[in-house]
Specification:
This protein is an all-beta fold. It has a domain of about 80 residues. It contains one helix and 24 strands. Strands 1, 2, 3, 5, 10, 19, 22 and 24 form an eight-stranded mixed sheet that branches. A five-stranded antiparallel sheet has the order 4-9-23-17-18, with no helix packed on it. Strands 6-7-8-21 form a four-stranded mixed sheet, with helices on one face. The protein is elongated, with a radius of gyration of 26 Å.
């Protein structure tokens, strides 16, 4: 009986510690995140010669440079939220994707995506390594993502509720039931325009809808930053290593890119649930509304492009490895500013990402 063998890659200490904007300046869904993201040892376990398929890993793709343990470089710069469009993997194995920041108008107007940004490590993280098997096999990748924040930070829901009509304002157009009078802590819907409406505004309020799903207007809320994180994988097939005649990785064909938000996908993407200790006491989790909240607070309107998350035709799945053939794996990790859970409350959170590769079947 052939035994399964596992190669593991652990991206330990990868973190998002965002710098949140304030409501008085530019509170919005797209925020600047962390100070550091650390990647520790990357390990690959190979089977014994008498067992079934074994897999090993390399940083270079050189035929004699596959090891049990490899280490990826640390990431030391902070991620900024972006939108991502189109991605291909070229003849050299490089993934080309377009990442763009949000461009806000000087005065309230339309906020749109700006020019493409090109700095890896600031706008996205790229992790590149190679995998090969000594015999043909099917490998199942399992990506486990865990939020390691001690207690998630909170944010006040400033949307919804009552807004006082300014005394200096001219009387707004009246709409039945839209305005409320206030007295002794009680708000009362006003179905007809009061006689003193034209001269007394300080006791009247307008009603605005709550834009955030989950928490009540004016209440604190938290959000799991992983819900706004996205990841992709580009795979390139290399030339078979034959008697050591090919010393370096040489890509020959490309495979369609796989991409998916950091959300559970069968056995391929596992998101560890938050513990009770991580949830702020007495605070409700927000599950949607970031884009509507941005528009309500800033007065800007997000363009269609600024609200479009990356659309993937495929999802993470099994890898089929041909004997003694290298495969280049290119992972990208980014914060999707258009994600409807990308609130400022994502600030100050940390997480780990672990990649496990398990041989599930022979050739």
């Amino acid at each position: 009986m052939k035994k399964s063998r596992i190669a593991k890659i652990s991206l330990m200490g990868a973190s998002i510690a965002a710098l949140a904007a304030t409501l008085t300046t530019s509170t919005y869904a797209w925020y600047v995140s962390n100070k550091t993201a650390n990647v520790e040892a990357v390990a690959g376990s190979t089977a014994s010669s008498s067992a079934g398929s074994s897999i090993s890993l390399s940083l270079t793709g050189n035929v004699n440079d596959y090891h049990k343990t490899i280490a990826l470089a640390n990431k030391t710069t902070g991620l900024k939220p972006v939108v991502r469009t189109g991605a291909t993997i070229g003849s050299t194995g490089a993934v080309t994707a377009v990442y763009k920041e949000l461009s806000e108008p000087a005065t309230p107007g339309t906020a749109d995506v700006g020019n493409a940004v090109t700095t890896e490590g600031t706008y996205w993280y790229e992790y590149v390594f190679y995998i090969k098997a000594d015999t043909g096999c099917t490998v199942r990748p399992t990506i486990t993502v865990t939020n390691t924040t001690d207690v998630l930070p909170t944010q006040v829901n400033y949307s919804g509720g009552y807004t006082k009509v300014a005394a200096a304002a001219s009387a707004p157009a009246w709409a039945a039931g839209t305005y409320y009078s206030y007295s002794a802590g009680t708000y009362t819907a006003t179905s007809s325009q009061p006689e003193n409406w034209a001269t007394t505004y300080t006791n009247y309020y307008t009603v605005s809808p709550n834009k955030v799903t989950g928490p009540a207007a004016g209440a604190d809320f938290y959000v799991n930053a992983l819900n706004a994180a996205h990841m992709s994988l580009g795979v390139q097939t290399g030339t078979v290593y034959a008697d050591g005649s090919v010393e370096t990785f040489q890509g020959t064909t490309t495979v369609a890119e796989y991409s998916n938000p950091v959300q559970p996908v069968q056995n391929f993407m596992v998101v560890t649930a938050l513990t009770d200790d991580q949830k702020p006491t007495g605070v409700t989790e927000a599950t949607a509304g970031a884009t509507n909240y941005y528009e309500a607070i800033t007065g800007n309107t997000l363009s269609a492009a600024a609200k479009e998350t990356y659309a993937a035709e495929n999802h993470f799945g099994n890898l089929t490895l041909v004997a003694n053939t290298p495969y280049k794996l290119v992972y990208h990790l980014w914060l999707d500013g258009a994600d409807d859970q990308c609130f400022n409350a994502c600030a100050g959170q940390t997480f780990t990402v672990a990649f496990d590769y398990t041989v599930t079947a022979g050739a």
